[in-house]
């Protein structure tokens, strides 16, 4: 016993015991192993609970909030309890360190209940849409839809009639900048390119809320609103898709040529091969991986570091890069959800590059939760869930937040929800 040895009666052998290391929040939760309550105490240095001297084998682990009686559900099924079957191995420690016990009922704050059509959040500023008009602090602002918001300020880009775009600083919302007019004026006067052209795609520059990256049919530009300056950074005929990472701009044209432009180094690069038929393109935050969707729905991953191209799925309507850029979630036309590991990634167990996980349920929308590495927001029908996005060949824990959500927005542990009747609420995760 002192050396962690026990008699395995079933196999008539002496074996070394194993251990289970758990980290969960809140720390006053109750733990059961194979249906029996286990008293645990958190270590001062580890921040977790170590359960020692366990006979090797499969264990059903249950962690529940105080007051819950397992295996019966505490409220709706799956809410406020975490359950998984894990293997305890001889002489080893099995870990489960990212267990979140979400509340049975999330406390919500009503922000607006006036039959809203849509909303957008920039920093802590909430812009709402009603009767095809945009409102901030009960005043109408320029535009009919919000296209983009800068992550570190209250600046937004809106779209009005006839594809006119406006830069609106919510600190001074009554003085918007007509981006479309400014762009076409500078294109003619500064770059000496005659005529006016429509803007096809537009987003904020990753370094500044006063700069805008936009594409037309044949070029990509950086517009500096504060300096009233315009720079053409990519020139490609018939641009079909365009995306921006943390530091680069990417564009692909009809012939399949992919060009990138480093915004800091002012350096352009062309991919070593072309791929035709791409209609949609996205990038991981660090710009290493590009997701390319072709006309038929094929989802391909371009690894720029290795100059390799991988067909991930033949029919994928949606994909989402993880915050750290090592994973990508995607769906197929049967609304099945998958997580593919682009690089080796460590959670409680190591997932090697190429590992593919199949998750439960139909999917209409998906968003990673950066503060909770193995959880994501998943919408299915009108319901919104928090779900685990890793698996150990056992149950995936899923927690329902709402049954009637039509639109949602997540930032900095705050979740904004728009209901079917147009009520906007906020909860803190």
Produce a short descriptive summary.
The protein has one helix and 43 strands. It is mainly beta and 429 residues long.
Question: What would you note in describing this structure?
Answer:
This protein is mostly beta strands. It has a four-stranded antiparallel beta sheet with strand order 5-4-7-8, with no helix packed on it. A four-stranded antiparallel beta sheet has the order 10-43-42-41, with no helix packed on it. A four-stranded antiparallel beta sheet has the order 11-12-13-14, with no helix packed on it. The radius of gyration is 26 Å and the shape is globular. The relative contact order is 0.09. About 3% of the residues have low confidence.
